[in-house]
Amino acid sequence: MLEVGVDGDRVVVAGHHGDGGTFGDRALPCQGRIDAFHAELDLDGEILQVSAIGGPGRDAARALALAPDGSAFVAGRFELAIEREGAVTTSRGSPTRWS
Question: How confident is the model over 36-95, as pLDDT tens digits?
Fold first, then answer.
């Protein structure tokens, strides 16, 4: 599943991957069986930013919304625990939703 949004001069995507991967020349490690990701590209396809979101279980981005101020909001589901922006959240039961 891949969510895509266009905001002025950038394209924002969110989805999930397994076994690691790359965005251009940037490695996107996989901490578990499946991890979510968020990426921003310019209109020529050049990568502006990419980040992995995940933990030891199956984690997936399921929705993407772009705010008028340019903020991107990603929501999804995870199992066990998930790390995003340096913070770890533990599931109360699998799967758990996040945003």
Answer: 888 999 999 899 988 888 888 888 888 888 888 888 888 888 888 777 677 777 777 666
Task: From residue 3, give the alpha-carbon distance in Å to each of 12, 92, 93.
Answer: 8, 26, 25
* Per-residue tokens: 60: 């997936």
Q: How many residues does the chain have?
A: 99
Measure the CA–CA gap between 12 and 50, rounded to whole angstroms. 10
Nearest alpha-carbon partner for 41 in 70, 69, 13, 62: 13
- Note the pTM of the prediction, 2 decimals: 0.78
Q: Are strands 96-98 and 87-90 parallel, antiparallel or unpaired?
A: unpaired
The two three-digit tokens of residue 52, written as one number: 């992995």
Lowest model confidence (mean pLDDT) among 2-11, 18-27, 43-52: 18-27
- So where are the chain's domains? 2-98
